[in-house]
């Protein structure tokens, strides 16, 4: 299934680069190495991707939520930290209108498993007005971004743009 068969629910998506090489290493250091001092420089890369996309300023930035158990184990939510830092850089608010319902991980899951997990994975905690930029570290299949976008739209968002540090290359392509 491709975007041509089923278009994503978001308005647009942009990433700083492919999930490979040094960028992949930095994302993994942030997440698995718990190196939260990387948030500021990585948010700088997000800001560059935002500027390159030439999007209008949104009403707010929203980080992809992490299940409370996983957040407690890691000590932080990297998407939330990146969203906060990007919001400061852009001079707009950061909102947290979403809650993750399930703690199941998508790492190593096939596309069908990711879609199944994400479809039921998010709840809305408050109304949303205007356009938002949804921030995450990596866009893989788009399942998480799609589920968050649907939840944000159901809460009142007029547009959702997805901004990530990295994007996994399509199968058969080269990074």
Strand order of the largest sheet: 1-7-6-2-3
The H-and-E topology, N to C, reads as EHHEHHEEHEEHE
Number of strands: 7
The number of helical elements comes to 6
- Based on CA atoms alone, the radius of gyration comes out at 15 Å
Q: Give the termini distance in whole angstroms.
A: 20 Å
> Which consecutive residue ranges, at least 5 long each, have pLDDT under 50?
none
For the record, the CATH class is Alpha Beta
Assign the structural class, choosing from mainly alpha, mainly beta, alpha/beta, alpha+beta, or little secondary structure. Answer: alpha/beta
What name does the CATH topology carry?
A: Rossmann fold
Averaged pLDDT: 87
So what's the oligomer here? single chain
Tell me the count of domains: 1
How do the strands and helices of this protein lay out in sequence?
Blueprint: E1 12-18, H1 21-31, H2 39-53, E2 60-63, H3 68-74, H4 78-90, E3 94-95, E4 98-100, H5 111-119, E5 122-124, E6 130-139, H6 143-154, E7 157-167
Parallel strand pairs: 1-7, 2-3, 2-6, 6-7
Antiparallel strand pairs: 4-5
Helix pairs in contact: 2-4, 5-6
